[in-house]
Amino acid sequence: MKRVIRPALRFDICACLTVDPQTLMNTGGDYRDGLPPAMMPRMLDIEYREGDANDLSDLAARRTPVGLLSRETSGNLDLSPRYRDIMRPLGFRDELRVLLRDRHGAWGALIMGRADDAPPFGSPELTVAASLAQPLGDALRRLHLTRLAEESTAGPAPGLVLLDSDHQVVHGTPTVATWFDDPVPPGGSGLPPAVYALAAAVQGAGAAASRTSWMHSRRHGRIRLHAWRLHEPAAASARTAVVVERAGPTEHIALIVAAYGLTPRERDITALVLRGRTTADISRSVGLSPHTVQDHLKAVFDKTGVRSRRDLVATLFARHYLPDITPAQAAPPRHPDT
């Protein structure tokens, strides 16, 4: 992706990340041309705890999900903690962001920077960035669905990592590193960005004491992250605990619903279909007429590209959901629709 867009946007640094469409939490990405790993904890602390101009939630609220840091600060870049603590020390003059989204939601982002000796980003780059939001968002959504169909259910035992107030590793169980694609150096800054993002989120003012998210691992597919804010310093001043384990049906079905663009009502009806419920049963459960239930089902069929209930079950259950049920559960008795 970066090789294709570099001639038009001419960045000196670039990170391509994926996000959870429900929460905008960081779930992974390509950071090889991004910030030095040592800077990543501070970057995500600003993003998910402190807040700054052009953060992802800000871009998500815009009609055109593109932002240039110099414009958002009216040229006074020192107002931005991201500029003061990261960009200026690294010798970068500006940051351009685009949230990658389609009509179903946000799926990722491009974060680009230019060095002090490069020309500034301008209106042409903003126009190009805006044109990328929908097609790249759609491509990422389709990639999520492909990954869901291909993921393995195998994985090591859950792992635990303790982080201090600067999100440095205080302690990690032997299994935690086996979940990640890259080695975790003792006491270093080698955790995936999704872990730092979640740790920052639970430390924010007014944030809940615990939060759950997920990330994608090349070795294990989708994995679940739980973070807790520790009320009292423990284990050599640890402030946050993060548990890493295999993702289950909850993460999968939520992402499937978002990726196919199902409404809450369509989601509820689909869940009942997956349980083998008849149209009459569904009608009574959701308080709709059988005719209205069938109309919602037709909309679900159109969005998921299937033609029948059997195809819907094969697409959503057998492909995405069944592999996570261990041991396999017997299906409920099927009854003809009425």
Automatic annotation (TrEMBL):
Classification via Gene3D superfamilies: Winged helix-like DNA-binding domain superfamily/Winged helix DNA-binding domain
GO MF annotation terms: DNA binding
One BP term from GO: regulation of DNA-templated transcription
Entry annotated with the keyword Transcription regulation: yes
The HTH luxR-type domain, residue ranges: 255-320
UniProt keyword Cell wall biogenesis/degradation present: no
SUPFAM superfamilies to which the protein is assigned, alphabetical: C-terminal effector domain of the bipartite response regulators (SSF46894), GAF domain-like (SSF55781)
Pfam families with a match to the protein in the record: GerE
UniProt keyword list: DNA-binding, Transcription, Transcription regulation
Protein's name according to its UniProt entry: Helix-turn-helix transcriptional regulator
Organism, as annotated: Streptomyces pilosus
Lineage of the organism: Bacteria, Bacillati, Actinomycetota, Actinomycetes, Kitasatosporales
